[in-house]
Amino acid sequence: MVASHELHLLTGGYAIDALPDDERAEFEKHLGRCPSCAEEVRGLRETAARLALATAITPPPQMRARVLAAAPRTRQLPPAGRVQLTARGLRRLPLSRTGLTGGILALAAALVFLLVTNFATTQRLHQAQASSRSVASVLAAPDARVESLAAAGGGTVTAVVSLRQQEAVVTSAALPALPASQVYQLWVMTSAGAARSAGLLTVSSSGTAEPALAGGVAPGDRLGITVEPSGGTAQPTTTPVMVMPVSA
After folding, report:
1. What pLDDT, in 10s, does the model give residues 101-111?
2. Which CATH number is 4-53 given?
3. What is the pLDDT of residue 83?
C-alpha cells in the first residue's frame, strides 16, 4: 500500500511501465482523481517516445570485422623497453632498434587502416548525419505530436508529426519478422487516394525500425505501411498493416 502523498512521485515509473502490478493498479485509481498527475504522465510518455526515436549514426557492418581483425596485430603504443627478472628484482632493458621499427610500422599500419576506412565511409556518414539532423529537427519541433497505433499482425508503430515542417518521423516496435524477399515500405497517403513512397523501413530482428523520415505531410494525409517485395514498389501492392491519420 503506497501512502497517498507518495502516489504523486510515481508518474515517471508509470510512464515507462516500470511499476509492479499492485502499485500500477493503485496509481491508475489515483490518476482518475488527480488531473496534475495525468497531465504529467502524458508529457513524460511523449518525452519517452521522442527519446526512443533518437538514433546515432550506425557504422558500416564491415567496420567491426576490420577492427577486430586489425586489433591482434596492431600495437597502439610501443613499449618503453623490455623487462628482465634478476636476483635484485625487475630490470628494464633498452628497446632494440628492431622493436622500435616494428612499433613504428604497426602504428603506420593502424593509421593507414583508419584513413582507408574513413575514406570508404565518408559519403555514408554525411548522408546519415543529414538524416539525423532532419529527424532531430522534427522531434524538437514546437508543434510535434506523438501518435502510436497497433499494426495488423502484431507490433506498434509510433510517429512524431510536425505539420509546421510538413514532416513525420516513423519507427516501430515488435513488428513481425519478414523473409528476405519482403520489406516494410512507408507511404504518405493523401485524402484524394494517392500514395507516395517515403522509403523502406530498416527493421531489426526484434522488430524495431530505425527512424524513417517522411516529407510533404499535410493535414488530412495518412501514414501507411505495407509489406512489399524486396526493393520496394512505386505504389502499394498489398493491404496496409497500419494506417495512421495525420490530424491538425
Report:
1. 454 455 455 54
2. 1.10.10.1320
3. 47
